[in-house]
Write a structure and sequence with these properties.
The chain is an alpha/beta fold. The chain is built from eight helices and nine strands. The chain binds S-adenosylmethionine. Homodimer.
Length: 250
């Protein structure tokens, strides 16, 4: 998977993109992260990448020409890549969106700054618009880092077997069950006996039940539309839930 990030602040990516799992994945050639400074495509001697908005108003807007130059240059090298604009107006970034993007050949991610990008960037070049949530960041760099991170861990072989994404929250529609490690007791809080029992079938059953319980407590809307197995239906009953009313109402 190839990521190309168009930004005014490439130095921000040092660290998040060059440590731990992403570093290992890059070293192995499983992912490739290209950083491109949008200013390199500005055409005046001050490398201007922003200007005041037509119609007046606060702040500055990122100019279309440097972004057009950057996008076209990267697209020439990677014609199969999808162009993504980070914007609060985009579709919400979820596990499902990350999965969908992980199947792309490559992603070209535009990091906005100031009041955002000239609308013509969006209309002429953008294939998809992604929002991290209903809040406003100072720029698209952190959004791009989140997208690269979440998508990369879904690329085959990026995670080792022991770090497999298949048991993580959202992978099967539910939140993850509670996790514990040594010591068996801390400040009076004990690890549930079942996890120390060595009975793997019972542990699996406990974990599934905890997934449902936790999802119901924090994100009941996620239960809606889940296809329950026969075993799940039994667990739902034990939790006092009707398998047909998956919105979490008992
Ligand atoms: C200060 S914001 C611009 C906000 C814009 N004026 C608005 O009200 O929608 C600058 C840049 O940060 C990025 N950004 C801000 N919030 C974001 C979010 N929730 N999700 C994704 N990107 C975001 C976008 O790239 C945006 O162009």
């Amino acid at each position: 998977m190839k990521f190309d990030i168009l930004t005014l602040f490439p130095a921000m990516f040092e660290g998040p993109m060059t440590e731990s799992i992403l570093k290992r994945a890059s070293d192995k050639g499983l992912i490739e992260i290209g950083l491109h400074n949008i200013r390199d495509w500005a055409f005046d001697k001050h490398a201007t990448a922003d200007d005041s908005p037509y119609g007046g108003g606060a702040g500055m807007v990122m100019k279309v020409e440097p972004l057009a130059g950057a996008i076209e240059a990267v697209k020439e090298k990677r014609p199969g890549s999808k162009v993504i604009l980070t914007t609060p107006g985009g579709r919400p970034f979820t596990h499902q969106v990350a999965q969908e993007l992980s199947r792309e050949e490559g992603l070209i991610i535009i990091c906005g700054r100031y009041e955002g990008v000239d609308e013509r960037v969006r209309t002429l070049f953008v294939d998809d618009e992604i929002s991290l949530g209903d809040f406003v960041l100072t720029g698209g760099e952190i959004a791009a880092m989140v997208i690269v991170d979440a998508v990369s861990r879904l690329v085959p072989a990026v995670l080792g077997h022991e770090e497999s994404a298949q048991y993580d929250s959202f992978a099967d529609g539910l939140l993850e069950y509670p996790q514990y490690t040594r010591p068996p007791e801390f400040r009076g809080e004990k690890v549930p006996d079942i996890l120390l029992s060595g009975n793997h079938a019972e542990i699996a059953k406990w974990r599934r039940k905890e997934q449902i319980r936790r999802t119901l407590a924090s994100r009941p809307e996620l239960l809606d539309g889940i296809e329950w197995s026969k075993q799940d239906k039994k667990l739902l009953k034990e939790l006092g839930l009707d398998p047909h009313l998956t919105k979490g109402t008992a």
